[in-house]
Amino acid sequence: SDHMENICGYLMKYTNLVTGWQYRYFVLNNDAGLLEYFVNEQSRHLKPRGTLQLAGAVISPSDEDSHTFTVNAASGEQYKLRATDAKERQHWVSRLQICTQHHTEAIGKNNPPLKSRSFSLASQGSANSPGVQRRPSQNAVSFFNVGHHRLPTGKRVPIMQPDHLVDVREMMSQAEGQQRDLIRSIECLPASGHLTSLDQDLLMLKATSMATMNCLNDCFHILQLQHASQQKGSLPAGTTISWLDPKISLANHFKNGAAQNFPAEINKPASVREEQSIAEPCQLTREPEEINPDEELEDICDDKEDDLGAVEEQRSVILHLLSQLKLGMDLTRVVLPTFILEKRSLLEMYADFMSHPDLFLAITNGSSAEERMIRFVEYYLTSFHEGRKGAIAKKPYNPIIGETFHCSWRMPKSSVATETGSSSSAHSPSEQVTLPKETEGPAEPDYYTVKFVAEQVSHHPPVSGFYAECVERNMCVNAHVWTKSKFLGMSIGVTMVGEGVLHLLEHGEEYTFSLPCAYARSILTVPWVELGGKVNINCAKTGYSASINFHTKPFYGGKLHRVTGEVKQNMMNTVVCRVQGEWNSVLEFTYSSGETKYVDLTKLSVTRKRVRPLEKQGPFESRRLWQHVTESLRDGDIDKATEHKRALEERQRNEERLRAETETPWCTKYFLKDGDGWVYHKPLWKTVSAAQTQQTDSN
């Protein structure tokens, strides 16, 4: 109560996507438990522009920066606020939390618990029944019941033994299930009438019950940590604790990739229990694995997303979801319904951008720096069409941290375009510097191999790293992408933050590039994908650059999927090539010589990627990790797919919380942090450089 002071001052408040952030004057009224704001300090004597009841509210510092925080009221209203610095944010957050706790506890004291009954709605018969005719003095909470259990007075609580943690987890699971039933019962109430789902008391009950369960989960994890700290002194060095089941091996439990081993619930299928509890030793290692391309087989999966299917049937669910979103809201932490998912991970989607390896390999065969830049632009613009699976916009699985995807392509050498007047096997002397061969092997294959690996290197923010190389052609590409999604009303926008670099080692050239934004339009009817924004491609060594504009369709008129661009020689400030057309249809390249070239993307040959069979994949490889979700979606069993998806997400949250509590940093498997980006741990440019040094020393 010493800290229950009324504070006031200016904060920035996020209004909407159009207006953005605006300064507003905020006043914390501790006596009334209200957070009010005004246009400015001078208008403080007027009626507030907005007011939030703090009882039952949740005050959350944002992890996107050190200045932002949110106030989530029990009514469902939210204020997104930003202080001038971290110190001011902490001051506001601490005072708001104290006020919130005080008024929430006051509600509890004024509303003593009822007699124990089961979790259920009161009988709702006809309009004349007592259960429906709500008296003014009757609190909505009385229509529900939360069981209360008191310990016998005078009895001391025994010290928690390791085996008892299993019992606690089971009771927690039961309580969580009852809390979900309570929420579901409230949400099933009609929108109008004597007792509605928007009743203020019921909204308060939803908020406080959820806060109670979160508090209990936090307490349970404290018990786990206490148990672990007690055991550390009696265990060998390097041994860690398997939290709940003492029969499971303790070794390597805290290593990255490990999951908490919760007791299997009888009513869950074995596949879900497997997703929630990793028991295979190979899943606990984070050592890089060398994938043998000979073990990979041509992919036979062809999951086109051309059928609305469940999206059409579940429109009411989409409407309910949209009703809870605000313009500009960050969707990174929003759990979207399973039926809008594609049957592949985001990591595999990045691999599908490489479905024209012949165009990729042809870049380094360009006879001049100008031709190589134009070839790269051609490959770049043709990659997005095949990256989409069908005409319907669906969302790939969000990769969990540590998830990986491996594949490769085999491209006949005769299919790769070469420079004018040379054969596909004509290589320059510098190209001959490749990895040293220990022994004379079999005859050289008549195809090139392009290898690809992707890894989810961060969960918050969600960052993916991917790398592809062709050793025979001395070329590789390394990229990292942070996907930021926002709600835009009738569409969803995804910004691809990051950078890629194409290395042509034969020529000593590096091409940096970025990625366009993506938009899912018409999400209530037939959702479709649109690309938008300006991207740049630059080669510092040659002085060539490309500027590409992906045009979004204007409100009136205009074409869909339009793209324009130009390739320039920066030193001379001359345009050497212009491109226009549609990124998913026909592209027209016009060169400075006056020649014109048309590329019909719908007729380009697609090379199927090669992937190891599921039984040979590691447990954290995308297809094996998501196999049960994918199978359920193919079978049209949305409920089962949701159950498997939830199990994976819950496991990830538990691991993340455990790492935070034990201060165990996450270690990536294939990618290393490099400044603001991520780089493959064994890139081709380092390998070739080492080979060149070794060859020079031997001479």
TrEMBL record:
Compartment annotation: Golgi apparatus, trans-Golgi network membrane; Late endosome membrane
Keywords from the UniProt entry: Acetylation, Endosome, Golgi apparatus, Lipid transport, Lipid-binding, Membrane, Phosphoprotein, Transport
Boundaries of every PH domain copy: 4-101
One Gene Ontology CC term in the entry: cytosol
Main location: Golgi
Protein's UniProt keywords contain Transport: yes
Residue stretches of biased makeup (Low complexity): 416-426
One example GO MF annotation: sterol binding
Catalytic reaction equation(s): a 1,2-diacyl-sn-glycero-3-phospho-(1D-myo-inositol 4-phosphate)(out) + a 1,2-diacyl-sn-glycero-3-phospho-L-serine(in) = a 1,2-diacyl-sn-glycero-3-phospho-(1D-myo-inositol 4-phosphate)(in) + a 1,2-diacyl-sn-glycero-3-phospho-L-serine(out)
Binding partners and assembly: Heterodimer with OSBPL9.
Function recorded in the entry: Plays a role in regulating ADIPOQ and FABP4 levels in differentiating adipocytes and is also involved in regulation of adipocyte triglyceride storage. Weakly binds 25-hydroxycholesterol. Interacts with OSBPL9 to function as lipid transfer proteins.
Stated name of the protein: Oxysterol-binding protein
Name of the coding gene: Osbpl11
